[in-house]
């Protein structure tokens, strides 16, 4: 990820954030909750919420002036910041939309039209990961399967030991498609899968798709910006999207959609057609009717915020990773379990094995345990159920997805450790928890 340069508003170095300022930035968080699930909804510091409110008031103060004079240049400023952060060649390649769900629908709907215009044949395929995000998988079903396309799901081993295991599965799926005479029109690859959470060797998979003649490649990096490095030129996909509200401190909801410059780009449209129809996806996305655009406008303030941390956003990312690994090791040691992936495949989220004696036997059990931890211990953590493989001895079937963001303290993880230790000591199993 590119570091912060002069396009990000001011060039002065802001004062480093103090511990009490950091606490105050997140003082709106519920103090009774140990928040270990940044991956679902992200977080937004109070200085950014204030900036958002300033934009909202600017609009309400003189809406006509705001719409005709302030909105477009302000969105352009945010797009330029994103362009630099992701190393895109041109600002027209960057659109800002509500969220990754919307970005995915824009790309997938575009391909639905290719089936209707007969440039694609029924049975042409899209390839996705089995662990792709469930809402995005549903969009694939709605836009690709319904249009007559075939969907190939690549199984991803979990727990996983190395990138090679994923690369091999993907290679096998491409070869199988070839043997079956399938034309693969679109590959949809996650950069960081949500559940179970693992960094996918996205650059290698994109390269493999290119070598095998896959038409277009779309990377779902919903969890990625502010979390891992993104260099869209280096990754080499045609489309890349990421939420700005998960790990980059924007308020909900904002995401970018990068579309590599091509003739095709002029045929891509926002799902909501409005005044800018036909003026390019970036322009179309900047005016989708009357609505609140403030979440898209705070990028300059977000850049100011991250510059208050040592090493800026890169410093935040590397410290989050180091800290979450340390906490994951502490938890797995306390519970006598393993991590779901090696450190180099983890970002600021890590899958930690739960004690087998808790009897996590289904997705429903995982949800019940998650609810119990929230309601009885004040711990918010995402929980994953993994079905045991045939003949597996003493399988770990439950994994907690813990995260680390700048607001976390060691006490958050100690609370989680102690809660689970108490459940084990009390002999609780998921079958005893209410539905
Ligand atoms: C990999 C992945 N894709 C897509 C999404 C959807 O993001 P949103 O709900 O903000 O559209 C998420 C959200 O967690 C995700 O993790």
From TrEMBL:
Keywords: Pyridoxal phosphate. InterPro entries: Aminotrans_V_dom, PyrdxlP-dep_Trfase, PyrdxlP-dep_Trfase_major. Signal peptide: none annotated. Residues 77-415 form the Aminotransferase class V domain. It holds the Pfam family Aminotran_5. This is L-cysteine desulfhydrase.
């Amino acid at each position: 990820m590119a570091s912060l340069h002069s396009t990000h508003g001011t060039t002065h170095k802001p004062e480093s954030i103090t511990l009490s300022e950091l606490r105050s930035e997140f003082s709106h968080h519920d103090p009774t909750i140990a928040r270990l699930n940044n991956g679902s909804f992200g977080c937004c510091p109070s200085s950014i919420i204030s900036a958002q409110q300033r934009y909202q008031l600017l609009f309400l103060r003189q809406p006509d002036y705001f719409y005709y004079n302030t909105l477009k240049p302000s969105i352009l400023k945010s797009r330029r910041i994103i362009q630099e952060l992701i190393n895109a060649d041109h600002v027209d390649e960057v659109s800002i939309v509500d969220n990754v769900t919307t970005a995915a629908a824009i790309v997938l709907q575009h391909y639905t039209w290719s089936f209707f215009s007969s440039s694609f044949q029924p049975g042409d395929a899209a390839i996705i990961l089995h662990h792709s995000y469930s809402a995005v998988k549903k969009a694939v079903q709605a836009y690709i399967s319904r249009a007559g396309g075939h969907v190939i799901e690549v199984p991803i081993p979990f727990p996983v030991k190395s990138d090679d295991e994923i690369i091999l599965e993907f290679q096998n799926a491409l070869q199988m498609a070839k043997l079956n005479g399938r034309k693969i029109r679109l590959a949809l690859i996650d950069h960081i899968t949500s559940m179970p959470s693992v960094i996918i060797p996205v650059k290698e998979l994109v390269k493999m798709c290119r070598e095998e003649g896959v038409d277009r490649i779309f990377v779902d990096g919903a969890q990625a910006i502010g979390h891992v490095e993104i260099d869209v030129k280096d990754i080499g996909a045609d489309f890349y999207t990421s939420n700005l509200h998960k790990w980059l401190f924007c308020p909900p909801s904002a995401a970018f959609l990068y579309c590599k410059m091509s003739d095709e780009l002029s045929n891509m449209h926002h799902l909501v057609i409005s005044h800018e129809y036909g003026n390019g996806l970036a322009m179309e996305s900047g005016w989708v009717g009357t609505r609140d655009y403030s979440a898209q406008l705070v990028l300059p303030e977000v850049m100011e915020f991250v510059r208050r941390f040592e090493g800026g956003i890169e410093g935040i990312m590397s410290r989050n990773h180091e800290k979450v690994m340390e906490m994951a090791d502490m938890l797995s040691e306390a519970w006598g379990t393993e991590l779901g992936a090696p450190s180099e495949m983890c970002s600021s989220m890590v899958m930690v094995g739960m004690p087998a004696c808790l009897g996590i036997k289904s997705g429903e059990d995982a949800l019940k345990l998650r609810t119990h931890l929230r309601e009885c211990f004040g711990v918010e953590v995402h929980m994953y159920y993994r079905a045991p493989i045939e003949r597996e001895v003493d399988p770990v079937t439950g994994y907690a997805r813990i995260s680390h963001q700048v607001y976390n303290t060691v006490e958050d993880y100690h609370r989680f450790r102690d809660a689970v230790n108490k459940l084990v000591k009390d002999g609780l199993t998921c079958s005893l928890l209410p539905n």
